[in-house]
């Protein structure tokens, strides 16, 4: 692809990423980009459709989901665009929705926004609880852009997630999630980040970038004993 065409393609991807509604027509997309060549817009959209980034319906509208918006962002990152700027166009709901979608693909049963109280009446919340016997993932999604002091903040986030996971193991009503004690199941705290971080683990808790999550889950059964796990045995 010629440099001018490549730049024009990035304009199309960026315009789709910034667009906040769920669908957009080819004509409206052309207007947003300032590119009057509808054949080029259509060709670029066809390429995105063929690579499972977006879908297009019978009315020639491009459909956007949290998953497609994350994929658009990754394509723009690979093309050399500024990560911090791209973060501004993605919110935490889209980040969590994409994470949930990946977990479902890997045959986890997933619960969002799991709230419970400890025996001391302290309130806790897990972003996602993902179950694939015998593994129960207690997940904290960190949609953080680059910033000063992030390494320290990540370590603190891991420590808090370990606290939440232990509290869940002791005080949550596990029957709501069809979890039984003493059946060999175990909990594992996990942080999922937007970016590749300076640290990959802390206290044996993995910190996994969202675009590496699928690979991580594929390997999890083999390497799970290398990470921090919390037994449900009484």
Can you put this structure into words, describing what you see?
- The strands form 2 sheets. Strands 4, 5, 6, 7, 8, 9 and 10 form a 7-stranded mixed β-sheet that branches.
- The chain is of the alpha+beta class and 234 residues long.
- The chain is 44% helix and 22% strand.
- The protein folds into 2 domains: 3-87, Winged helix-like DNA-binding domain superfamily/Winged helix DNA-binding domain (Arc Repressor Mutant, subunit A, Orthogonal Bundle), CATH 1.10.10; 92-231, Trna Endonuclease, Chain: A, domain 1.
Structural class: alpha+beta
Fraction of helical residues: 40-55%
Low-confidence stretches: none
Order of helices and strands: HEHHEEHHHEEEHEEEHE
Q: What number of structural domains do the residues give?
A: 2
Determine the strand fraction and express it as a percent band.
15-25%
Principal-axis shape: elongated
The residue-averaged pLDDT reads 89
Round the Cα radius of gyration to an integer and report it.
20 Å
What oligomerization state is this entry in? single chain
- Stated plainly, the CATH topology of the largest domain is called Trna Endonuclease, Chain: A, domain 1
Helix count equals 8
CATH C-level label of the largest domain: Alpha Beta
Distance between the ends: 61 Å
What is the CATH architecture assignment of the largest domain?
A: 3-Layer(aba) Sandwich
Q: Main beta sheet, described? A: 7 strands, mixed
Number of strands: 10
